[in-house]
């Protein structure tokens, strides 16, 4: 290791009385908190629900020596699923960052949730990670959520390693084809399983031709010790043949993908490809993985404690170090601090805890930090290394690491943190001086790391405190929860004054409700769950309006003429547009133009039919005449009133969210699931076979999906799983729209 380790600490298991931090012991070279950057791996684990991410993480922590006993999801005692609801439900809700060391590498690992309601958690994690492990249930192959997270990883150009878990299941199969076809990835097979189902006992490493065998002596065997032995003639001839073929295929595949390896093969090993040293093959696989030309594939069974150590080796061998990833913005900061806040948690004693990914510079406790997004400076008190729900206090942290900070009260997820306003300005200057960057982006946005895109919530409901005296407490709690979870939106209904919770799904809102009760001790009442509809218009329409009002001594007079028309969703991606005639553009002062824009945009937020946000509407401002002395607020008010007139004339259309649904169900229950779906206005797109199961792909309006998990469980005696994801917004037919309008206005 060439770089100097700035500090070494070790967690001691006795807690300081009255304080949260652990005693810190300065040690020698063996426990680096600030590893040199090329030994760091910032890794996420992603997969479909129940593929075994949490079980795999637990095994990793155990083999790395960070836990002394194996946690079990089914017993609810895992390290990473530490929230009460996670332990009870056996699912991962919040991604927990875990830091541990493996063979002198520092691994910062984020265990991410598989349920689609928490997709944003995955997105947040991916934004700050350098590599990912995709865990598959080998008996199910590529499932819906894997596809979603895979696409997310592609978006962030994240190199991946695949782990085919659950090889001990009778139906387990080596789903390489499914990875190739469904994920459109190029699997690079690095291992061959030895035995299958119950008889799965180990793997053959194709790089070294070594057999790694877990000879479990009892059910309690933790798999820490396994036998490594070169394959020889005494081995099963069928296995020898399979390994030989697979190794040749691997060498050929890697040579196709990596020119350097191909050249080496053709020059030094042209006589015998097989004699290529395993380290040369490994280096080539690494280059292929980093270039995202191929994905290494390994297999094992986390629950049965087989195959996890080679997966850890693969993480260090093939996934990139932070300095091997290109982050455009970071170079403007040189050695100054630049970090991204990617998660906020609220701790009752310590206040907000902010997870930061450090891209450049060094972070130290008590530092004043500048938040570019909020244009504010605040002081951080402590600096910690996250170890699930336990944290180790440290004196400094360098680029490439993930840190947990205490004391940042204004920072929210997605903010860029730097050392001072001056360093942000220096970075902006450097960005501007660079001619190429100048072309790309001339504003200070170029020195801000991009955060995560927050999808629009599809469900909402009212939330009420038990009494008015608790309203302020509830508002405070909701503020904290929103900082933690940007996919949760809270607003106040302007008509009723009620507080509205908007979320990504039924489970999301249920969990929020539960957390308010458990973690903050407020018993709230939730109104019925409602669907977040949208509105659009059917025809073109024009309107004009004049506002003439005297307030006190002052007379405000404004006249507005405008036109609205529906636009093709494809051309504007569903958003609304505003344009001014050329003549008007020249006439309006900047202040009055802003007033007009405010008036139009507030109308876009509340459609004329039911008050839902508008989509795919274009507005053209044709005339605005303003008498001297008229205030901008009056201009906005007149524009909004005129917009409402025009929108009403243009005929309203309600758009409903339509979800894509994937149900995996046994043959015997397929017909009842199909029958139920027909009653929910569902459209079946495809029915595929997956082993003994059928996979039903359909689209269905979200409004019909309330309580679906309970109904599906009853229909199939618990033998089905489903995932639901927003597909599009579609126009309702006139009859359904009328029924909805009547229901929502209380006439039904
Ligand atoms: N047979 C078998 N079962 C496994 C294996 N790994 C995990 N499981 C079981 O699969 C179920 C789901 O495991 P988890 O580790 O919670 O999966 P997860 O992907 O973290 O699930 P979420 O957090 O809910 O997304 C549990 O009942 C595990 O015991 C395996 O290798 N073999």
UniProtKB/TrEMBL annotation:
CC annotations in GO: mitochondrial matrix
Coiled coil: none
Entry binding sites for GTP: 47-54, 111-115, 165-168
UniProt domain Tr-type G: residue ranges: 38-323
Cell location: Mitochondrion
Classification via SUPFAM superfamilies: EF-G C-terminal domain-like (SSF54980), P-loop containing nucleoside triphosphate hydrolases (SSF52540), Ribosomal protein S5 domain 2-like (SSF54211), Translation proteins (SSF50447)
UniProt xrefs under InterPro entries: EFG2 (IPR030851), EFG_II (IPR041095), EFG_III (IPR009022), EFG_III/V (IPR035647), EFG_V (IPR035649), EFG_V-like (IPR000640), EFTu-like_2 (IPR004161), G_TR_CS (IPR031157)
GO biological process per UniProt: mitochondrial translation; ribosome disassembly
Keywords from the UniProt entry: GTP-binding, Hydrolase, Mitochondrion, Nucleotide-binding, Protein biosynthesis
Pfam families, per the entry: EFG_C, EFG_III, EFG_IV, GTP_EFTU, GTP_EFTU_D2
Catalytic activity: GTP + H2O = GDP + phosphate + H(+)
Molecular-function annotations in GO: GTP binding; GTPase activity
Function: Mitochondrial GTPase that mediates the disassembly of ribosomes from messenger RNA at the termination of mitochondrial protein biosynthesis. Acts in collaboration with MRRF. GTP hydrolysis follows the ribosome disassembly and probably occurs on the ribosome large subunit. Not involved in the GTP-dependent ribosomal translocation step during translation elongation.
Protein family per UniProt: Belongs to the TRAFAC class translation factor GTPase superfamily. Classic translation factor GTPase family. EF-G/EF-2 subfamily.
Protein name, entry field: Ribosome-releasing factor 2, mitochondrial
Native organism: Maylandia zebra
Lineage of producing organism: Eukaryota, Metazoa, Chordata, Craniata, Vertebrata
